[in-house]
C-alpha cells in the first residue's frame, strides 16, 4: 500500500497542510500552480474589485479550463499515437510483404539463371555436335 505524504504549502499567502499519496514534491508543484494561477488572475483588470466568492469561482473556472484543455491535448496525443501505431503496423506489414516478394523474386532469378545455364550448356553441346557433323 502506498504511503500517504503530508506537507505544508503556501497558497495565496496562507500556509495549508496538504496530504495525499503523491510525493511532497508533487504537492508543492500543485501549490505552485495554484499560486501562479492566482497571480495570473490578479493581473486582470477589475479582478481585485471582485468578491472573494467571485475570485474563487474565477480561479475554479480557470483551473477547470486548464484541465479540459490538457485533457483534450492528451486525447489528441493519444489519437496521434494510435494513428502512428496503425501506420507503423501497416508499414511493417508492407515491409514483410516486400521482403517475401523480394525473396520470391530472388528464387525466381536463381531458377531462371539455372535454366539459362542448362540452356547455355545445351547450346554448347549442340554446337559441338554441329561442328563434328560438319567435319564428317
TrEMBL record:
SUPFAM superfamilies to which the protein is assigned, alphabetical: Cell division protein ZapA-like (SSF102829)
Residue stretches in coiled coil: 102-136
Subcellular location: Cytoplasm
Pfam family, one: ZapA
Main subcellular location of this protein, as a coarse class: cytoplasm
Self-association state and partner proteins as the record states: Homodimer. Interacts with FtsZ.
Role noted for this protein: Activator of cell division through the inhibition of FtsZ GTPase activity, therefore promoting FtsZ assembly into bundles of protofilaments necessary for the formation of the division Z ring. It is recruited early at mid-cell but it is not essential for cell division.
Protein name per its UniProtKB record: Cell division protein ZapA
Amino acid at each position: 500500500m502506498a504511503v500517504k505524504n503530508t506537507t505544508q504549502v503556501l497558497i495565496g499567502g496562507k500556509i495549508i497542510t496538504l496530504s495525499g499519496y503523491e510525493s511532497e514534491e508533487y504537492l508543492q508543484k500543485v501549490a505552485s500552480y495554484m499560486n501562479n494561477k492566482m497571480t495570473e488572475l490578479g493581473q486582470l483588470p477589475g479582478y481585485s474589485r471582485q468578491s472573494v466568492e467571485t475570485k474563487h469561482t474565477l480561479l475554479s473556472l480557470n483551473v477547470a479550463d486548464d484541465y479540459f484543455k490538457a485533457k483534450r491535448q492528451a486525447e489528441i496525443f493519444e489519437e496521434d499515437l494510435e494513428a502512428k501505431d496503425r501506420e507503423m503496423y501497416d508499414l511493417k506489414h508492407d515491409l514483410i510483404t516486400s521482403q517475401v516478394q523480394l525473396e520470391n523474386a530472388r528464387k525466381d532469378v536463381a531458377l531462371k539463371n539455372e535454366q539459362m545455364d542448362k540452356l547455355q550448356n545445351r547450346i554448347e553441346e549442340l554446337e559441338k555436335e554441329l561442328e563434328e557433323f560438319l567435319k564428317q
